[in-house]
Design a protein that fits this description.
CATH superfamily of the largest domain: Type I PLP-dependent aspartate aminotransferase-like (Major domain)
Helix content: 25-40%
Shape: globular
Number of strands: 12
Distance between the termini: 46 Å
Number of helices: 11
Structural class: alpha/beta
Order of helices and strands: HHEHEHEEHEHEEEHHHEEHEEH
Strand order of the largest sheet: 1-8-7-6-5-2-3-4
């Protein structure tokens, strides 16, 4: 793979540099390439506004550490990414859930009402192809969210890990409409390129200097040769070419999943996202997907129950289904066994 060659070449070029740590903010060549990608999505980022991390989860962790103190209240989408819920619990932060549409994401009107009752320090949101639903927020909702952040003096933490996965359109980042430096942008290459790289980034807005210091004390530095190899992969066009192919593959696999679900005899409602790696499946109300999970596991089928995506026990009759992998015969047969396990 071209990426492997780029990383190997960077390692050979490193010579004596392996005796030194990289700067905490990360390699300038990679930050420059990330800034160029950001510009294609409406955000004119400077490299000094970016810090390399070990993935989006670390970026979210650093953002919450910089903005919040133990006991503070953080708003999250419901359903939303369970990794964020785990971070909030670890940091001793209180959670208030904001309903999110399976098509248009965070309900900004409901968030505005919640701000009247709670002193919220931050809101964690995935505006583009959110997990688990694949929802994307429309432009007017994004602008309203930024306005609320300014009015109520809070941070918006943007989880943009799926942003570049869209095959019909790649939405602008939320950072593109942030004119008051209240958006902390978090992303990585884990979902669109490789989980093994452990490369992400963060742009901390008005909290950026604090975030870089937190990275210094918690990680010190990132791997220089991996950063430079990925930067070369970006610069020579390898990443853009790969991403075009991968988006087409994701679209095919989503379509195949929807076709398979269309043959189920069980009444369902499924989202049809135009990006991301998964869709959200709503089953009949009597189905308990935690119990279904255990029965399916006994049959060698692994599913992700809806209750994982909320702290309030909601979505017990829902599932997240991934289309990140090709639909082999074995995977398709496993999926088709699920309806018989719902009784």
């Amino acid at each position: 793979m071209q990426l492997n060659r780029s990383i190997s070449r960077a390692l050979r070029r490193q010579r004596g540099d392996f005796q030194y740590y990289d700067e905490p903010a990360g390699d300038p060549s990679l930050r420059q390439q990330i800034a160029l990608r950001a510009a294609k999505r409406g955000w004119q980022a400077e490299i000094d506004e970016l810090c390399i991390t070990s993935g989006c989860q670390q970026s979210l962790f650093l953002a919450l550490m910089a903005v919040c103190q133990q006991g503070d209240v953080v708003a999250v989408e419901a359903p939303g990414f369970y990794g964020v819920l785990q971070l909030l619990e670890q940091l001793g932060l209180q959670v208030v859930e904001i309903p999110a549409s399976a098509e248009t994401g965070l309900d900004v009107g409901a968030f505005e009402q919640t701000l009247q009752r709670w002193d919220i320090k931050a809101c964690v949101v995935s505006p583009s192809f959110a997990t688990p639903t694949g929802a994307s927020m429309p432009l007017h909702a994004r602008a309203h969210l930024i306005e609320l952040a300014e009015r109520h003096d809070l941070a918006i933490i943007e989880d943009d890990i799926y942003g570049e996965s869209g095959w019909l359109v790649v939405p602008d980042t939320l950072k593109a409409v942030d004119h008051s430096n209240r958006v902390i942008h978090c992303s990585s290459l884990s979902k669109v390129l490789s989980r093994d790289l452990r490369l992400g980034w963060i742009s901390g807005g008005r909290w950026h200097d604090d975030i870089v210091r937190l990275k210094l004390t918690s990680q010190l530095a990132s791997s220089r040769f991996i950063q430079r190899g990925v930067a070369d992969f970006f610069a020579d066009g390898g990443y853009a070419a790969y991403l075009r192919r991968y988006r087409q593959q994701l679209q095919r696999q989503r379509d195949q999943l929807l076709d398979l679900l269309g043959t189920w005899s069980v009444p369902i409602r499924a989202t049809s996202p135009a990006g991301g790696l998964a869709l959200w499946l709503e089953l009949p109300e009597h189905v308990d997907t935690i119990k279904l999970y255990n029965r399916a596991l006994d049959e060698g089928v692994v599913i992700t129950p809806g209750e994982l995506f909320s702290m309030s026990g909601k979505f017990s009759n829902c599932l997240r289904l991934s289309f990140a992998h090709p639909w082999t015969r074995a995977r398709a047969e496993a999926l088709m066994r699920l309806p018989s396990l719902m009784a």
